[in-house]
Amino acid sequence: MPARKELHFFSNDDVHKELGYKGYLAANFSDARSFKAVGEATPGYLLYGDRVVPRMLESISEPDQLKFIAIFREPVERTISHYLHARRLQVEEAPLEEAVCTSKEGMPIDPESIYVRSSMYADNLKPWLECFSLSSFMFLRMEDLENEDVIRRVFHFLGVNEEVSLDLTHRANVRSVPRSRTLMRFLNLDSVPKRLAKRVFPQDFLRRIRLRVVQFNESPSDDEVMIRPELRDALAAHFAPGIDELEHLIGLELSAWKSTNKMTAASGRV
Q1: Helix (H), strand (E), coil (C) string for 62-83
Q2: Which of 28, 82, 217, 265 has the smallest CB count inside 10 Å?
Q3: Which of 31-35, 232-236, 241-245 has the weakest average pLDDT?
Q4: Could you tell me how far CA 91 lies from the centroid of its own chain?
Q5: Would you say the C-alpha torsion 129, 131, 136, 142 has a positive or negative sign?
Q6: What residues have CB less than 8 Å from 212, skipping those under 6 apart?
């Protein structure tokens, strides 16, 4: 796996055009020939399957050898977490209700909201299942990742060593806040210096620099964000049919999600 997560090669038009498939391999997997399995982690690929799947089929010589691991989080919590992540990056200024609803009256959920669409797992999965068999996928719930047996099943699915030592205490993507909001805003909004840099430096290089600056600017936060019960209930009702469809589509047991309608604090993991 590359050290950097979320490469977005198959989903980002600019990255895909600039690097090309050979450049993508050279930039991220040049030293991977001796490994039994190689891969990357880009959660956004699921949402953009109509774009990602054709590019994979076009680029990869043996697409039937591909294996995919899809990890699903309870959709209400994922939606809220996604929103908080955007707020942290200074790319979202609207209150949560405005970001996910079409109106404050009655809180009708906006199906076109990026935060909502990203949590419609069954809809997002369909372009993938049209081109790849179910046997190419391993489907997990986020809460499954705390189980060592599940992790070893992942290794078995990938055909790699199942007996390696595991440390499940490490938590990735812990909620944080920017030390400098001005710096975070500069990183995420268009500007003349950034446009000039794009003309001079390769995009992959700029993405690596940006990632390091973002990590340097992050400060852990334990603050809890309370969500109005009416909004949580509206989100839960919106996602309920999709949860049923996902269960039927892939055979994953999701009864715990259906009973999650209480007002809780968003954990901030994305």
Answers
A1: CHHHCCEEEEECCHHHHHHHHH
A2: 265
A3: 31-35
A4: 16
A5: negative
A6: none
Phi, psi of 140 (to 5 degrees): -135, 155
Sign of CA dihedral 72, 77, 82, 88: negative
Distance CA 45, CA 252 (A): 20
**Which residue type is seen at 63?**
P
pLDDT at 133: 95
Angle at 38 between CA 34 and CA 42, to 5 degrees: 155
Q: Which residue reads 């038009």 in tokens?
A: 13
Answer positive or negative: Cα dihedral of 213, 214, 215, 218: positive
- Separation between Cα atoms, residue 23 and residue 140, nearest integer Å: 31
**d(Cα 145, Cα 195) in Å, to the nearest integer?**
40
Determine the residue type at 115. Y
Give the integer Cα–Cα distance in Å for 158 and 149.
Answer: 14
- Centroid of chain to Cα 236: 20
Give the other-Cβ count within 10 Å of 233's Cβ. Answer: 15
Q: Tell me, rounded to whole angstroms, the distance of Cα 7 from its chain centroid.
A: 11
| Amino acid type, 24 | Y
Give 12-46 pLDDT, tens digit per residue. Answer: 999 999 999 999 999 899 888 888 899 999 999 99
Please, which contacts does 242-248 make with residues 24 or more away whose CB atoms are closer than 8 Å? 242/75, 242/119, 242/120, 242/121, 242/122, 242/123, 243/75, 245/122, 246/72, 246/121, 246/122, 246/125
Q: Which two tokens stand for residue 13?
A: 């038009």
